[in-house]
Amino acid sequence: MRNPLFLFAILTLALSGCSLNGNLKDTLKDSLRNPLDKIQPYKLEIPQGNVITQEMVDKLKAGMTRAQVRFVLGTPLVVDAFRTNRWDFVYTLQKGGKTLESRRITILFDGDLLQAVEGNVVAAKPVVEVKP
What is the pTM of this model? Predict the structure, then answer.
């Protein structure tokens, strides 16, 4: 044995070749791919709809008029032409093409007065139905 360090270096190089998965041709092919394939376009955060917070929903009280509800929550995104007693507020937040947050609230009226709140953001104290 001339030099143990030389033998160690030879063994290290020989064993490092064993760590390649597949054959050498596939490894070289992957390394020579077009570098533009790795570039992705920037995707913005896209908030859509009415931003509804828990604080806004907590302000809703049974018996509020449509104007008062519109003042608290804003203009509804969807007003059904066939059911005028229902307003839908929808909010989604997307980033990179994936939905991060989604909220939906339905406000039901009896005549001109708030009757019920439904959805995934609900008032801490449930809205009590008003009986005439």
Answer: 0.58
